[in-house]
Amino acid sequence: MTETSKGPEPRRHAGLSVAISTRDRPEALARCLEALRRCRTLPAEVVVADQSTGPATREVVSAHTSPDLPIHWVPGGTRGLAEAQNAAFRQVKMPLVAVTDDDCIPAPDWVTIIESEFASDPRLALVGGRVTPLEPAGMNRFPVALRGGMERRAFEGRSAPWNVGSGNNFAIRREWFARVGGCDERLGPGTPGLGALDMDLFYRVLRAGGRALYVPDAVVEHERTTRRGRLERRWTYGHGMGAACALRLREGDLFGAKLLGDWVLLRIRLLGASLARGQAGGLREEALVLGGTFSGIVHGARQPAGRPTHPDWRRGARDDENRADVGP
User: Fold this and answer.
1) Among 28, 74, 188, 292, who pairs with 235 as Cys (CB 3.0-4.6 Å)?
2) 196: which DSSP letter?
3) Residue 260: which of 274, 281, 275, 243 has the closest Cα?
4) How far apart are CA 293 and CA 290, in angstroms?
5) What is the mean pLDDT of the chain?
6) Which pTM does this prediction carry?
7) Using 50, 70 and 90 to split pLDDT, how confident is the model at 9?
């Protein structure tokens, strides 16, 4: 009598969706989706909001979706990352949503850790995690958007959002995303606001009473860039923060002034540290952040008071015409 061999045990699925926004980076997206497939606990679904100019991204989604990891393609609009993230959140099914970028690789226990943190604290609205650099490749030798802190920290109230995490590695309860009106589409890459989409979202969640947690064990690896690419991001990073703070002040949120002051003092301290160590590169980078910040303040101050109309995040049904359950 022949003994029947048993295959590997099927992996458990978390009650969690993963949202990824992408634009014309099909190879990077494929790598990110493969990393999610290798997670010890699989997400219930992945939603890819696509702003690409051609069909390659949708073909990647089609090639990688499967019964054990459904991947849904949705159009991400044309007006920048904030619009794409809003489009993804309108389509997700699960109460928890983890967000990463197409040029990131989540660690195998990323989904498991995020789900566990939310399960252990019903009051928790937002989780941020650690970001480490991928190995250098070709001209891409310089790390960007890193977050290496190893101290677990909790945040409530009007706290500095840059201590919570970053936009390439965070998770949020969908109800809290809806409560604060989603991403502000005046901010972030692809808009005149240039950056700080993530910082502004985190701040508004905290301001609304949400509890946030920085969890160093929740790790993604981020692709490196060229020296020029890193310097360009320093300016846009500062511009976005200046614009975000000015926009909140235009709303009448006076804490925006303190937030802006804390941000400028932080950058001045970092500039001083680079000066004391004789680090010319650090001096240049912090000068770019500060210059971008003041440029962003001017930009934000010129915007009309109040936020533009956003979709009704509290609607129950998804727009199935825009959701493509692409099969293999």
Assistant:
1) 292
2) -
3) 243
4) 5
5) 89
6) 0.90
7) low
Give the DSSP H or E segment for 180: none
> Is 235 in contact with 144 (CB distance < 8 Å)?
no
112 vs 286: CA distance, rounded Å: 36
How does residue 4 score in pLDDT terms, banded at 50, 70 and 90? Answer: very low
Q: Which helix (H) or strand (E) holds 43?
A: none
Q: What sign has the CA pseudo-torsion 279, 284, 290, 293?
A: negative
Which residue bears the tokens 């991204």? 57
> Taking the C-alpha atoms of 21, 266, 148 and 137 in order, what is their torsion angle to the nearest 10 degrees?
60
DSSP secondary structure string for all residues of 239-305: HHHHHHHHHHHHTT-THHHHHHHHHHHHHHHHHHHHHHHT-HHHHHHHHHHHHHHHHHHHHHHTSPS
The one-letter code for the residue type at 126 is L
DSSP-assigned letter for residue 31: H
Whether 296 and 31 have beta carbons less than 8 Å apart is answered as no
Angle (CA) 226-228-230 rounded to 5° is 70
User: Residue 156: pLDDT above 70?
Assistant: yes
Name the maximum alpha-carbon separation found in the chain.
81
Tell me the sheet residues that pair with 16: 96
